[in-house]
Amino acid sequence: IYMILTTTNSIDGKEVTNYLGIIVGTTYTSNHGTKGMSLKDIFNSKKYYANYETGLDEAKEEAFEKLKVQAEEKQANAIIGVSIDIEMMSTTGVTMISVVGTAVRVQ
After folding, report:
1. Residue 78: beta bridge partners?
2. What is the DSSP annotation of 4-73?
3. How far apart are CA 22 and CA 103, in angstroms?
């Protein structure tokens, strides 16, 4: 199924025929900065941040996939008003990624 995702509240050339509800895809990740790195690499900030960025990208993709699954369960063919929130929980070092949108049917 092809799913349209947009940060806007409308889709050019499409009409929203049904609003099916707010949906959320959330994932948590930790230690993605040092995962699979040698001790020497951990102290190389360029490699550390590249690894951290890759971990965040993977977690964001997982959150988007969860969002799409929820939309499909509601028989949606699009998600409008998509926003993403990334929060680092300082006490645990866990990063929470939430993607929120409105599942809709468009034609």
Report:
1. 4, 104
2. EE-SSSS-TT--EEEEEEEEEEEEEE-STTTTT--HHHHT-HHHHHHHHHHHHHHHHHHHHHHHHHHHHH
3. 6
> First CA to last CA across the chain, in angstroms?
14
Q: List Cβ neighbours of 15 (8 Å cut-off, separation of 6 or more).
A: 106, 107
The number of residues making up the chain comes to 107
> pTM of the prediction?
0.82
Please write the tens of the pLDDT for every residue from 57-89. Answer: 999 999 999 999 999 999 999 999 999 999 988
- CB of 78 closer than 8 Å to CB of 5: yes
Contacts of 93 (CB under 8 A, 6+ apart): 30, 31
